[in-house]
Design a protein that fits this description.
This protein has about 100 residues and is mainly alpha-helical. It has helices at about 1-10, 20-25, 30-50, 55-70, 75-105.
């Protein structure tokens, strides 16, 4: 999902502007904001696939998705989808945390 969003936003940035809150669009130029966020998403996706420090990467993914959900509360379709993604990231976080506990026993 992070890879898709990153690639799609680089190919058609005008379609993704509505997902950013107004204050971000006023503070940072779009030509920096969209590619910068896309790079962050690609790094996060790669980190999740890599599987190292999975507790950290899934936690960051959950926080990022929660923030995206919060700033788009007026878009019910996005909220509905993103709540499921936040829960999936939290489930991955919990699995990674339990694995880390087992390794330390």
């Amino acid at each position: 999902m992070f890879f898709y969003a990153a690639i799609a936003s680089m190919l058609r940035p005008e379609h993704w502007l509505e997902y950013f809150p107004d204050f971000m669009l006023q503070v940072m130029p779009i030509r920096i904001l969209i590619p910068g966020f896309s790079i962050l998403e690609i790094i996060l996706a790669g980190w999740l696939f890599w599987g190292r420090k999975l507790m950290w990467s899934s936690g960051i993914a959950a926080i990022l998705l929660a923030l995206i959900t919060i700033v788009n509360l007026n878009e019910l379709d996005e909220v509905f989808r993103n709540v499921g993604l936040v829960m999936a990231a939290l489930a991955l976080f919990d699995l990674a945390r339990n694995d880390a506990k087992r390794e330390n026993i």
